[in-house]
């Protein structure tokens, strides 16, 4: 791999952003829309896929690399930021929702990390952002993150983001950890990932935790988030007042409707 060696600093607590320091001619790649600010002398360029050498050569190779990103729900394009000046420059990227940014040195993680499909934020140029197909259908259908997850490969720095508080846990060989499927952020390449149905009909139907749990078996490292964005969004949506006529007029929704009706 020919990854650029970037320096960085993370600011903030619950609404974090990462500031990347670029030497002359160094480049960082990022998801479209994640830019917060950048200094003069940094040039932006939109590219298919991640712009890495793993993407393949020629138009078809680039289209294939970009098409893989569509399967994970991401944009066809990514943005590169290159320091075209003669001095060190800084560019910053922000998380899209409350949570933490996790810096990952892929060279210290055996060159590969598997993460949930919307976790990637930015990385040094040369890091490959691809897809990881789960071999078992049960994982794909009931895993909470779909049949496809992202994989980050290379030996440079990568940054992923997740909701709430992040807990990093190292699993010993054979050690098993069961977590809510949406709380899985990332794991190293040696962790075995499967889906387990909750035992007991009453627990599954009335326990409020869903029918399935993710079963992670070591060795390896796992990153877990306390507040998946899907859980946050569902709570916000459930609390939104009904404003249309003919809908539920009770509770807070009815109070909002009472003040909004003009006839």
Automatic annotation (TrEMBL):
InterPro entries: AIM24, AIM24_sf, Trp_RNA-bd_attenuator-like_dom. It holds the Pfam family AIM24. PANTHER family: ALTERED INHERITANCE OF MITOCHONDRIA PROTEIN 24, MITOCHONDRIAL (PTHR43657:SF1), TRYPTOPHAN RNA-BINDING ATTENUATOR PROTEIN-LIKE PROTEIN (PTHR43657). NCBIfam families: TIGR00266 family protein. This is TIGR00266 family protein. It comes from Bacillus badius.
